[in-house]
Each structure stands twice: as C-alpha cells, then as structure tokens.
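U., I forgot to send this yesterday:
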Amino acid sequence: MKLDIINIDGQKTGKQVDLPDDIFGIEPNEHAVYLAVKQYNASQRQGTHASKERNAITGSRRKIKRQKGTGTARAGDIKNPLFRGGGRIFGPRPRNYSIKLNKKVKTLARKSALSGKASAGQIVVVEDFTFESPRTKDYLNILNNLELGSQKTLLVTGDHDQSVVLASRNLGKADVTRAQDLNTYSVLNASTLILSESSIEKIKETFA
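Result:
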C-alpha cells in the first residue's frame, strides 16, 4: 500500500511511502485484538482496593447480649457485619489484574489494528518535524492543517521527541507515542493514525 507524504502545512510533498502488506495489509484477527485490549485495560488497574473485614475492625470481642430470651436475633460481637460500623462481608482485597499474553498474539493484534486503520483510510503520513520550543498552539496548527484538529489522533514518531510530547499533552484528543511503544489499544482508540516518515522504518524493525 502506497500513501502520499504530507508536510506540516497539509500539502503533498510529491513523495510516497510504501507500507508493507505483512503489517498494514493482513486480514484482521478480531479475537487477538480483543485479547490485547483486554490485557491493556487490565494492566491499567492498580489493584490496591481494600476494605476492612471483621478481623480488621477495632472493637471488643465480647458478646453484646445473651443468646436467648431477648426476642431478637442472636448476635455475637460488635464487629458483626450486620451492625453499623461492623466489618464488610467478602470485601475487595488487593490483587494483581495482569493477564499473560503470548508475544505472537500481541504482535498479531497490533498488525490487525494497523491493517484495520489502513483499510479504512485512517492513516496519514507526514514529514518528520520538531519544535524549537514546545508550544501547544504550534502542534494544534499542524493538526488543523491536516484537517484533524477536531479528531482524536495518535502521532507515531521514530524516536522520542520531548518538544513534540510537551506541545501535544495539553490537547485532550491528541496523543504521541514512539513506534516501539505502539500498542493495540492506542491504535484503536485514535480516529486517525499519524505516522511520521521515520516511524515507518521503526515499525518495520519492531515487527521484523
């Protein structure tokens, strides 16, 4: 698949880039994509939730009333979960939500996500650019020139560019990542994928 390379002014440069079919032209595997997104969402959970069960509540273990003859239900100590201020029954405990996924499945999922974007025409290739000083307005102007100012975008760069990252981080719908850090969820979450010219070679190396 060949795409025109566009400059930051939104104009065609006359150059084209060839996107490899083994990465951008495969039949998407929906189940692999599902597993990769599930793993990503699970890894975002801290798993630090906790509540106090009756063994963690401060209070006396003395039986608060006699077993029989009160006309009410029998009760033990004040930490009974049925009482106000008592422990919680089967409350959440700290746990690890991470899911193991084979490397081949993760690779297939990323290729499937990229191929889906390519077949839908949601990939734009731009010339490499940087900023002398990070300004949100400058990055927003580039998106407006590409007619993507109102869309959710993901810019993929060849290497980490701190000025581009800082210029984009105040925009809620704009995200920036390196080609090596590309994941299935971020690709699917973006309406349009913006590939810098140098990122394509990095993507090829990543999937080689």
